[in-house]
Structure of Thioredoxin:
Amino acid sequence: MATKSIAEAEFEQTISGEGITLVDFWADWCGPCKQFAPVYERVSEQHPDVTFAKVDTEANQMLSAQLQITAIPTLMAFRDGIQVFSQAGALPAKQLEQLVEQVKGLDMDEVRKQVAENEQSQN
C-alpha cells in the first residue's frame, strides 16, 4: 500500500484500528520533509500490511497542536490504537525499515500492561 494523505477528521479512525499505522507529519515548505517523502513512499511499498499515512501540518493545524507537533517532519507509529513511537526528524530508509520491524515485533500484551500501569500511577 502506498502512502495516503489524511485530514483531522480521519486521523482517529486511521490510527485506532487493529494493526500498524505510521503517520508522517509534514509541510510543503519543509525541505527535510520533501527529502523524507520518497523514502517514506518506498518503505510503504515494502510493507503492504502497514498503513502509511501523511498529515499536512499546515492544513491540519488544530490536530498538529493537539499532538504537540513542534518540529517537522515528525513520525509517529501506532499499533492497535496505541502510540508506540514518536520522533521528529527524517529517518534514513534503513532506520525506517528497522522501526517498522520493531513495531511489528512488539509484544502488545506487555505494551498494554505498561500503558495501564502508567495510567494508574498518574491517578
Q: What stands out?
A: The CA atoms of residues 23 and 53 lie 5 Å apart.
